[in-house]
DNA sequence: TTATTTACTGAAACCGGTTGCAATCAGGTG
DNA sequence: CACCTGATTGCAACCGGTTTCAGTAAATAA
């Protein structure tokens, strides 16, 4: 906890060399006599020198910071990814700067502009809505990785989870347990994840020769409140159903509560599955069967990958698997 | 989404003035002829000029970034505060850099050093463990605000919630509902918040002339898992109890689950109250009675306050009130 | 009319690094 | 011994702003 106004010049004097030599030692980008090198390093050590980031940035053009654009800080899945990103960058010398795009194109472009203004060396977009065109422009400008979004043509700069198969597995699980009338509460209509999950759901039904009943398809917005609303309107319709596949865990929480308020038990009367597997889901009542998104891993993978990109190497990014976590919110249907 | 390598020199040429004048207009720290000013601004506008942060930082010493030290990204309360911090800074021109101290003194000092190396203009510590001495040193060096921690002598640089009275109110609520045998699952032993909450609990009991029974005091670590463990060991002791005050909501979730697993109903058999009021708590079963910590507000207040400090003004920081949210996890005791 | 301000503006010196280019030095070669 | 090489190292020119200081022209005071 000590401050220092030691500059490279001080080091140079102390070691009896020129600024240039000190700089070379520090960045080892040229051959320096081992003995000189040693002297310089000792001077650095004993004076507790730390390079001034501004000067370095101004001269070299690199900032050693990366911009992270997230959507809705405070939502469980994005928080997991952020956590992973931070972990992924610790020890690499890069510092992440976080900004919030709030799921709004214009806001997102704004904050990206801010980041560019700050001369970040790379960019990680967690989700987001901006157009492929903007994305491509961005990529031309600096190393960029998109997480939680599958962008055509970005094969090795995308980390995303296979929403389709996750939803497929979840729905299939319900079907295997005897459910035929499976409602779905979708996420935000134009949201890519939401669309994929719906497709997985539809495919699973179709593969089991169950006709998709439009009356069992409800719209939501990923919030618990929207789960409540959806269940209420579903009950109004009077259609019978024995299971609900929810866009995410928060929606599932809302759905469960709404059902309970009407005296409908979960899972005895109606089964529920969610998506995300946020931390709370193991402990709610009943513990929620859900599809686990490896948010932390995704963030970590993205960070490590970006570091490689920024160093001019290429990187391979794995497609993350969304795995079903079977818990207690789904029960077997005994007799129809 | 357009890149620009426009420098102040380009603006100067375009407007037929010197770099100095452009700089003056941009920072309006000297009188400039309105007409000249206008010309410069037009040039800036039409070329889409954006100042280079490195150059500005190097010359002025200010970075327009602030460091935010958090503990455990991904934990609900810290996430709320982060969210508030981000909101608080948007539009101020300052960008937050987040680092994670992980509730470890040495890590925390490390990351703070990193931030200092990045020449942040100010610091917000969300929670944390570092010594008052280090804190004081830090404060001498640059504007600093501590959130979620009550530091003696830092009257206007601390944002914290009154844990004592929050816990007091929660316990008192249980007492008013007829409970006498109230267990408590504490947070991490040396954690200040945990200590205050325990004191509030103890005081409420004492004020109601209920003797504090050491057998009803359990230790936990703020995790759901620790709630489960605590309940199990409480049940082993064979002591009877009708209510549990939990260190935070996650612990309450765990506790509820553990009780249910033993066939004990909440709230019919045992009442539970938590602390935090994280987003899920309204929707779990039963909706959790808990003490609301205004995390987002706290983060926002801290950010706004820090901006004032960085501008050389003083700031007044309110003590945040922790308010009891009455929901359905507490029931009246009818007959003993 | 002349002396003084006042209002603006420009030149140039930083800020603390990086980097291209030239210079120096030691060892090897003919 | 003169010449050539490669290894090292220093000089000085940036990078793109901010800020001090001096200078000019117009305005006010004497």
Automatic annotation (TrEMBL), chains A, B:
<dbReference type="InterPro" id="IPR028082">
    <property type="entry name" value="Peripla_BP_I"/>
</dbReference>
<dbReference type="InterPro" id="IPR010982">
    <property type="entry name" value="Lambda_DNA-bd_dom_sf"/>
</dbReference>
<feature type="domain" description="HTH lacI-type">
    <location>
        <begin position="6"/>
        <end position="60"/>
    </location>
</feature>
<dbReference type="Pfam" id="PF13377">
    <property type="entry name" value="Peripla_BP_3"/>
</dbReference>
<keyword id="KW-0238">DNA-binding</keyword>
<dbReference type="InterPro" id="IPR001387">
    <property type="entry name" value="Cro/C1-type_HTH"/>
</dbReference>
<keyword id="KW-0804">Transcription</keyword>
<dbReference type="InterPro" id="IPR046335">
    <property type="entry name" value="LacI/GalR-like_sensor"/>
</dbReference>
<dbReference type="GO" id="GO:0003677">
    <property type="term" value="F:DNA binding"/>
</dbReference>
<protein>
    <submittedName>
        <fullName>LacI family DNA-binding transcriptional regulator</fullName>
    </submittedName>
</protein>
<feature type="domain" description="HTH cro/C1-type">
    <location>
        <begin position="2"/>
        <end position="36"/>
    </location>
</feature>
<dbReference type="InterPro" id="IPR000843">
    <property type="entry name" value="HTH_LacI"/>
</dbReference>
<keyword id="KW-0805">Transcription regulation</keyword>
<dbReference type="Pfam" id="PF00356">
    <property type="entry name" value="LacI"/>
</dbReference>
<keyword id="KW-0678">Repressor</keyword>
């Amino acid at each position: 906890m000590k401050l220092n106004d030691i500059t490279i010049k001080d080091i140079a004097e102390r070691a009896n060399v020129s600024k240039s030599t000190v700089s070379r030692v520090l960045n080892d980008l040229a051959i320096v006599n081992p003995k000189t090198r040693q002297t310089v390093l000792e001077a650095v050590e004993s004076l507790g020198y730390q390079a001034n980031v501004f000067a370095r940035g101004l001269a070299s053009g690199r900032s050693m910071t990366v911009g992270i654009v997230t959507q809705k800080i405070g939502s469980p899945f994005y928080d997991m990814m952020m956590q992973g990103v931070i972990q992924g960058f610790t020890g690499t010398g890069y510092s992440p700067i976080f900004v919030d795009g709030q799921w709004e194109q214009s806001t997102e472009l704004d904050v990206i502009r801010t980041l560019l203004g700050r001369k970040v060396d790379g960019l990680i977009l967690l989700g987001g809505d901006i157009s492929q065109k903007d994305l491509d422009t961005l990529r031309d400008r600096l190393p960029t990785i998109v997480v939680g979004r599958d962008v055509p043509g970005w094969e090795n700069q995308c980390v995303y989870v296979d929403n389709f198969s996750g939803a497929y597995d979840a729905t299939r699980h319900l079907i295997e347990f005897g459910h035929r009338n499976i409602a779905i509460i979708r996420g935000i209509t134009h949201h890519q994840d939401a669309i994929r999950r719906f497709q997985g759901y539809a495919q699973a039904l179709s593969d089991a020769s169950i006709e998709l009943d439009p009356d069992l398809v409800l719209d939501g917005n990923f919030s618990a409140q929207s789960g409540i609303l959806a269940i209420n309107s579903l009950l109004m319709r009077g259609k019978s159903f024995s299971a609900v596949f929810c866009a995410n865990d928060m929606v599932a929480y809302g759905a469960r509560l709404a059902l309970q308020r009407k005296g409908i038990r979960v899972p005895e009367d109606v089964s529920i599955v969610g998506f995300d597997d946020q931390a709370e889901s193991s402990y709610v009542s009943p513990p929620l069967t859900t599809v686990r998104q490896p948010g932390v891993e995704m963030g970590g993978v993205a960070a490590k990958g970006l570091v490689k990109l920024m160093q001019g190497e290429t990187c391979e990014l794995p497609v993350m698997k969304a795995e079903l976590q079977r818990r207690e919110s789904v029960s077997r249907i005994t007799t129809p």
